[in-house]
Amino acid sequence: MEFNxxxxxxxxxxxIRDFGVKHIKxxxxxxxxxxxxPVEVFKKLGELGLMGVLVPTEYGGSGxxxxxxxxxxxELSKIDGSIGLSMAAHNSLCTGHILQFGNEAQKKQYLPKLxxxxxxxxxxxxxxxxxxxxxxxxxxxxxxxxxxxxxxAKNFITHGKSGNVAVVIVRTxxxxxSHGMTAFIIEKGTPGFSAGRKEDKLxxxxxxxxxxxxxxxxxxxxxxxxxxxxxxxxxxKVLDGGRISIAALSLGIAxxxxxxxxxxxxxxxQFNKPISSFQGISFKLADMATEIxxxxxxxxxxxxMKNRGLNVNKESAMAKLYASEVSVRVANxxxxxFGGYGFTKDYPAEKYYRDAKLCTIGEGTSxxxxxxxxxxxxx
Length: 379
Ligand SMILES: Cc1cc2nc3c(=O)[nH]c(=O)nc-3n(C[C@H](O)[C@H](O)[C@H](O)COP(=O)(O)OP(=O)(O)OC[C@H]3O[C@@H](n4cnc5c(N)ncnc54)[C@H](O)[C@@H]3O)c2cc1C
Fold this sequence. Notes:
This protein is of the alpha+beta class. The protein contains eleven helices and ten strands. It has helices at residues 7-24, 28-34, 39-47, 66-79, 81-101, 104-115, 231-267, 279-307, 313-338, 349-356, 366-378; strands at 121-124, 140-144, 147-158, 165-171, 181-187, 193-198, 209-220, 224-225, 269-270, 273-274. The chain has a four-stranded mixed beta sheet with strand order 1-4-5-8. The protein starts with 6 loop residues before the first helix and ends with a helix.
């Protein structure tokens, strides 16, 4: 495994740092405060090729692999976790599902629009009563000739309102049957398909999270991804890749929180010395740096394996579990190093702290990652 950045990774990291200074940093606290999802930033990231990182060039994407993808999300999340989360959901979930399981016509129709961010993508698995237990979902599709009629609701869906297209997984068979669910591509404006309530969140506030509502929503059978009954298995495979992107998101937030705390610890003096000279602070920084390094290795290991076409079910869960828990620990210590100022909006520490927490929840909680890992090592 190569430990140094490739030329492409360096180029992507530099490009995102520049982009962040110009287009994200000046407005991000405003978006955070007002919970505004900055669609125009998304479109600009699309122009840079960051909305179809893994999409082959023949479908209008950048044609990169997972190493570049992890670098892009981590660099973006170092600046603003909300934008990192939205980028991860767009690339890995909606776009990733169509890329992995769409037929040629579906790929030609949707990937060029998604890869350039002309369209924004959403992905709906979670329901109000079934999050971790997604296989128990109740949103149902019933066949009526060439159409499927969908009724029910999804919640916590990233880009549920602003998304131009959603991939949703719904029940087409018996409850409790992992082959009883099917994935459909549904475009915004389809009668019976609408966005519901927007969540008011602790963190990741500039990443839009809403309900999706289906009321006798008729979807043509050509919009089905794969075959009837394949939806849940497809979703689990999509999440295997998606979890690498949440590990990258976690890593970026942790790195951002660490760099801010490191700089502050050298500027802030108490007892006539920089606070970094106190062992109580320098040992925190040592722990933070070490844990970030370990999270980075797990994340890039999973990315490298994914690039080589290996099964990453266990490794992506390990990377996501560890990196997200590190992100929360590092962001917490970051606030502590800033002292009272860490508790204010004048410094970035509080935002990293709020944003980091999502990482241990989205795309499967830490407890669910442990379930995935333990199943893999006990079989
Ligand atoms: C900001 C945000 C964005 C999101 N974006 C999307 C999206 O785009 N698309 C989408 O489909 N979903 C999305 N989600 C949903 C997310 O994936 C779920 O919130 C997550 O899977 C947890 O489900 P839940 O919230 O229903 O919690 P629950 O499943 O109710 O879990 C509650 C608690 O019980 C624990 N628990 C549950 N089962 C077990 C078990 N078997 N063993 C031990 N502990 C267990 C959990 O770990 C957790 O601590 C998003 C969520 C958020 C907050």
